[in-house]
Design goal:
The complex is a heterodimer of chains A (about 160) and B (about 230). With about 160 residues, chain A is of the alpha/beta class. Helices cover about 20% and strands about 20% of the residues of chain A. In chain B, helix 5 packs across helix 7, helix 5 crosses helix 8 and helix 6 crosses helix 7. The chains are: A alpha/beta (about 160), B mainly alpha (about 230). At the A-B interface, loops of A face helix 2 and helix 6 of B.
């Protein structure tokens, strides 16, 4: 197994978008734990860690990953690994920038249990103001909360620290 | 090694049944934001239940769907509090806080001690989901308890009505946490030694579970063996 051949699998996964937040690839999202090829390069095994327990996107992601890899491999094995649990700490820096550009404030800071007071977004992704307030702790997908900027008055999604 | 059926079933069933109850609020919650919040919490609980039912199913040779859709009420082990009808919003939030506090303790223990990797994984994930649920339910209990005369009356009524159903989830740690939350809400916790039900561990349920299952299981039972 060489870095060059493994890189092929990672490159294919870079092109698989998150179905709910399509500016993020599954690699940016930090759910790909491992990509392992057989020595002959014909089969690949991918290990994914789901984001949220009941996230409906998980099954779509697994299917999309399989489809993307089947273009280049004869055999594709997609596995899930629950422990250690996925955390927003695994979002890539590129992913965080893309979220911001998409109008979703990225998670602020690292995940520290017990997560009772996890804070909020550093700034409004639209105007950059740091004057923001929470509208609702839960949003349109399991990973988001709804916030509002009190400077430009726009509501926006915040990806919660998790 | 925990014995899946005896130790995990109350937890798995509790998450499943409470998830179904919360889903009954969809399109009926007091505000759009609350509809979304309860939907999110229900979804997390459903995912947690599935993760555990898969483990239990693997141990007992059945699928998670068979466990969820083809068991009779007396085979369920969810704490009674999870199956109670939703009542008003105060009742739903007080119940949620009571169950969230129980789950917080259970998930922490499992994450630290479970030998089964899947159980540990479900628990590690659930700890973080539960933290957000608990933040939500406790803030509502404070807001309603320390709110208007009407909201306070409803929260007091809810707490009293729920109290005889704490049997399977209450221990010293639970009482301490509930006491702290209710004190913050300017409410008084009913006595720790007051009588309580705890019959679900023997498969005895309230009449409400049968009606809940009749709805939850109807599609799967009408089309046995069907898959998506």
């Amino acid at each position: 197994m060489t870095r060059t051949t493994e890189a092929r699998g990672w490159a294919l996964l870079e092109a698989v978008p998150d179905p709910e937040i399509p500016v993020l690839s599954v690699v940016d999202l930090g759910i790909v734990r491992a990509v392992e090829e057989s020595d002959d390069g014909r089969s690949v095994q991918v290990t994914l860690t789901p984001t949220y327990s009941g996230c409906p996107a998980t099954e779509v992601i697994m299917r999309d990953v399989r489809t993307a890899l089947q273009a280049s491999y004869d055999t594709v094995d997609v596995r899930t690994q629950l422990s250690p649990a996925w955390t927003t700490d695994w979002l890539s820096d590129k992913g965080r920038e893309r979220l911001h550009g998409f109008g979703i404030a990225p998670p602020s800071g690292r995940t520290t249990l017990p997560l009772i007071d996890a804070g909020g977004p550093a700034s409004c992704p639209r105007c950059g103001s740091s004057k923001v307030e929470e509208l609702a702790g839960f949003g349109s997908t399991p990973c988001k909360a709804l916030w509002r900027c009190t400077t430009c008055r726009e509501p926006f999604d915040y990806m919660k620290v998790h | 090694m925990v014995s899946a059926t005896s130790e995990l079933l109350p937890l798995a069933d509790g998450c499943l049944i409470l998830s179904h109850r919360l889903s009954e609020w969809m399109s009926n919650a007091p505000t759009m934001e609350e509809d979304i919040a309860l939907g999110n919490i229900a979804l997390d609980l459903l995912g947690q239940a599935r993760g555990l039912l898969q483990v239990i199913g693997d141990e007992t040779g059945v699928t998670e769907d068979e466990l969820a859709y083809f068991r009779e009420p007396q085979e369920f082990r969810n704490p009674l509090i999870c199956e109670l009808p939703n009542g008003d919003f105060a009742f739903t939030m007080a119940r949620q806080l009571f169950v969230d506090i129980w789950l917080a303790h259970v998930w922490s223990e499992l994450a630290a001690t479970a030998s089964d990797e899947q159980v540990r994984g479900v628990a590690e994930k659930a700890i973080k989901e539960n933290a957000y649920h608990r933040r939500h339910s406790s803030s509502w209990v404070v807001r309603l308890g320390d709110g208007t005369d009407e909201s306070r009356r409803r929260m007091e009524t809810a707490t009293e009505a729920l109290w005889p159903y704490r049997g399977e989830i209450a221990d010293d740690r639970w009482y301490d946490a509930v006491d702290a939350a209710l004190t913050e809400a300017t409410l008084t916790m009913p006595p720790r030694d007051a009588w309580t039900q705890r019959s679900s561990l023997d498969g005895w349920h309230t009449e409400h579970l049968g009606y809940l299952l009749a709805e939850m299981q109807s599609l799967a039972r009408a089309h046995p063996g069907a898959t998506w």
